[in-house]
Amino acid sequence: DGGDGDGAPAEPPAGDPPAEGEEDAEPEVDEYQQRIDAIRTQTATQVEQMDELERYLEERTAAADELERARMEERDSLYTMDHRNARLPRLPHDLDLDRDRVEGVGLLDPRTLMEDNERRMSASAAPPSTLEFLDETREPKYMDLTENERVRDAMRQREREKRSRQKTEYPRRLVFSAEEWERKKRDAEDRLRELGRRMTPGQRDLEERVIAGMRRKQAYLRNPRHPEVPSSLDGTAPKRVGAAIDPTDVFVVEPDIVEFHQFELGETYEMRLTIRNKSALSRRLRILPPPSRHFSITELKYPSDHGLLAPGNAAYATVRFKPDSLADYEDFVTVITETSKFRVECSARRHPPCLTLDQSLDVGYVLVGNDVETRMPFKNVGGEGRFRLVDEADWPDHTTPLTLPNEEAMLSRGERPDPEPVPCIGVAPFRIGPGYMELAPLDVEQLRIGFAPPGPGSFMQQFRMVCDNSQVQTFTVTGRGTVLDVGLTEIDDRATIPGELTRGPVYFGKVVPGSVNTRTFTVKNATMIPVPYVWEHPREGGIFAIDPPLGVFEPDSVNAFVVTFSPRDLTAYEADARLVVDTSVPARVPHPEHPFAEPVLIEDFSVSGVGAERHCTIDTNLVNYAGSLLPGRHYDREVTVVNHSDAAAPFRWVGHAPEA
What we know:
By secondary structure, this protein is an alpha+beta fold. The chain is built from 8 helices and 30 strands. A 5-stranded mixed beta sheet has the order 9-18-17-11-15, with no helix packed on it. The longest helix is centred in the N-terminal third of the chain and has 49 residues, at 31-79. It is elongated and about 170 Å long. The N and C termini lie far apart (204 Å).
């Protein structure tokens, strides 16, 4: 019944009795299960992070694709769908990623890679940094005292000061007199000076070793493995033993330069590279691939499996080229041999187009208010190419949109309108076309330059011609505007007064019928282009006449016209005279079948004259030679004719013998 005692068990606490088999110890923890749970939790967290990252990448990619699609639609609206076939280099993708978020999970950001690559390229192209010890402006420090030397100098200085304070007398000096002591002192100094000129045994031994080594290098024995080849055997000078081996004396590379001439965008081209061993020993070699991504090379193929290239045998590899544009490419393949390494150049160059077009284009003078199209023929004497014109202000960020030409523009003589409008670019105040060209070898094309000057003066613009091989040429087009400046400046070598022609007619005076009065009109053309003209006045009666009646004023010229008045009756005459010019291009003489296209009235004035009565008298009606006249003699009598009319009167003698 559980009495009190030392060995009696303790009573259980109040409450429910413990269950059967239950122990007081804590439940056992399964460590493996905990590790499995931790791994599952970590895996679930990583999967959730990867799913979220995948959704983020898909969203950014979709946004970039949408932006690129919108830009492509905008270019389609500006340049039509044909710009997609121009094969221009593709612009970078607009994928914008969070750099920290991408790099935090071990992914690569394309934009970051391109920036790092650009920095590395800039650093590789930069000049090498100058080290501190190459600075010639700094004072050298190799002559400075070290800490050890300063300590030793201080110790020697203290020792000298200590000896100077002691002032001990040399003991042997007491034995000699003063004269003997000075003589011995001089002899000792001379002996020490002579000994100072001699080498020490150690220094002499070192110098003799150096001289012996120099002599030994000048008289060495040749290596029997490399005997000297006599010059009489191969016709060449003997080679110095130990000289560097020229790779061309060991290997022959065919072709020596890997060249691709004709290629298209997106295609892959291959060329076989052969390396042949022409030496007398078996050789090993290996190839390093080209640095750029446009060229690649396959693994070397040996004629055997052991990787040695026997004399006369060749190893083969294939060089591949995949262009992403039609530009020129240059690269190299590095061949490493047992003794040296060399490069095999790789290049890709299409036969470039060459246009016979001057880079300075001058369209000359154009009248203000006109729109003249000048055509300049040129020829492609090079290879095939596609071209696009771009305004200098838009290059290189934008592409100048194409526009239609002015179909009402004037053309030069002999030019005909195009059957279909040729697209061009606007470079105010010029229009230059065609804006897009595809030229095969020996094709002939015309560069159309439209010029509509807004005012007088010189105008100059620049534009770029971009070829599909990434070559860009800059052209300068120049034009000058001029205003119409034609006028009657002089009458009979007298300058006209402003408004003189509008105040009244130009008077020719009184003229007797049958006679002619002439006056000279001077017309100046200050315009810098040829100007056709015609005089409009009544020609039916033949009273007034202007010579020449029509023609072309040369640029910046002075022209004289003879105006005649020949009345028929005793009456007053008056007629209108008009000077009309044509401002159209090309300048041509007016014809009844081809009247002026753009007539402009320059002068409109009147001319007048009067037919005067003729009144002339003669002082005698009979000329009498009285007396006896000798044969063979010549006799003269003077007859006076007086004109009493108000104008000059024509006259002539009749009834006499002309031969007399």
